[in-house]
Amino acid sequence: MLRGMPLPDQDSAVGHSFVLELDGQAIRLLEVQNLVLSIFGLKPGGGTTARARAVTLVRPLTRDPTFADWAHQSKTQGVAAGRRPTVVVFAADGSPVARYHLENAWPSRLDIGSLTRGDDTVVVERLTLTYDDVEAG
User: Fold this and answer.
1) At the top level of CATH, which class does the domain 16-136 belong to?
2) Looking at residue 45, what DSSP letter applies?
3) pLDDT (tens digit per residue) in 51-99
4) Residue 85 to residues 63, 82, 93: CA-CA distances in angstroms?
5) Residue 121, exposed/middle/buried by CB under 10 A (0-12, 13-18, 19+)?
6) Long-range residue pairs from 52-56, CB within 8 A, at least 24 positions apart, any chain
7) What are the sequence ranges of the domains in the chain?
8) Is the pLDDT score of 130 beyond 70?
């Protein structure tokens, strides 16, 4: 048992809100799913090689066409539509807790949540970004 070591500050790891910074625009998010900082595959004969990763960003469906426009651009331009967006995590007081810069990120999937007549839940859109690398900072 470790003695004399203070417990970590659990509140500092709590994400109160999230934003995607893209082309000078801050897009509010409801959820960030599966943001992976490192993933490696084994090379034949030893060593590792970095592999592409994917993160899913969830936001309420709005009139803002940013996600749809970028997904369409990705469909027509392929990987050339890659950008360097940043996911920012904020504490309850509004101060940034963490920033994750995605390198060469491009939309690989855009889907709309369930549409049910008479339902009172928020309709969301989910944008999955495939990216080459991520830098925390």
Assistant:
1) mainly beta
2) T
3) 678 999 999 999 999 999 999 998 888 777 789 999 999 988 888 999 9
4) 21, 9, 23
5) exposed
6) 52/130, 52/131, 52/132, 53/130, 53/131, 53/134, 54/108, 54/128, 54/129, 54/130, 54/131, 55/87, 55/102, 55/128, 55/129, 55/131, 56/31, 56/32, 56/126, 56/127, 56/128, 56/129
7) 16-136
8) yes
